């Protein structure tokens, strides 16, 4: 699968190794990891009662696919050989951060994320999932949940992006069931 690269002329400013585009959005990848039963990995952020899909910023010089595999390793301990890319969103999906999360003293100011979402199938044992490979870890617990469960659980400001990504990717889900398509 070919993934488009981010060109340097598409990026206006950098914040360390994190890029911020001219509109204040940080390029990011979102990861929906499915098992053979069509369930998806749902992870709890360490120290919070907030659950989400793995995600992370695209660093300068990385393609979205390279960022996907880096984040997958850092956050859940999986290697490229543990998964198969099933699909990705056609374009970037954006969400704005609530004002309380915007660091107005940073330059450039990041007002939100623009995300390329990937649907992956776990091809290895779930025993390969490790949450403690990064310091500090991003997550402290994970579970398999039904495909549409995250929509009712994710923090409100991410809900629309989750819905758009999940609707676009759901038809490619392994073991697609009529329950999945009826929730769109």
From TrEMBL:
<dbReference type="InterPro" id="IPR022927">
    <property type="entry name" value="RppH"/>
</dbReference>
<dbReference type="Pfam" id="PF00293">
    <property type="entry name" value="NUDIX"/>
</dbReference>
<keyword id="KW-0378">Hydrolase</keyword>
<dbReference type="GO" id="GO:0034353">
    <property type="term" value="F:mRNA 5'-diphosphatase activity"/>
</dbReference>
<feature type="domain" description="Nudix hydrolase">
    <location>
        <begin position="24"/>
        <end position="167"/>
    </location>
</feature>
<dbReference type="InterPro" id="IPR020476">
    <property type="entry name" value="Nudix_hydrolase"/>
</dbReference>
<comment type="similarity">
    <text>Belongs to the Nudix hydrolase family. RppH subfamily.</text>
</comment>
<feature type="short sequence motif" description="Nudix box">
    <location>
        <begin position="56"/>
        <end position="77"/>
    </location>
</feature>
<dbReference type="InterPro" id="IPR020084">
    <property type="entry name" value="NUDIX_hydrolase_CS"/>
</dbReference>
<protein>
    <recommendedName>
        <fullName>RNA pyrophosphohydrolase</fullName>
        <ecNumber>3.6.1.-</ecNumber>
    </recommendedName>
</protein>
<dbReference type="InterPro" id="IPR015797">
    <property type="entry name" value="NUDIX_hydrolase-like_dom_sf"/>
</dbReference>
<comment type="function">
    <text>Accelerates the degradation of transcripts by removing pyrophosphate from the 5'-end of triphosphorylated RNA, leading to a more labile monophosphorylated state that can stimulate subsequent ribonuclease cleavage.</text>
</comment>
<dbReference type="InterPro" id="IPR000086">
    <property type="entry name" value="NUDIX_hydrolase_dom"/>
</dbReference>
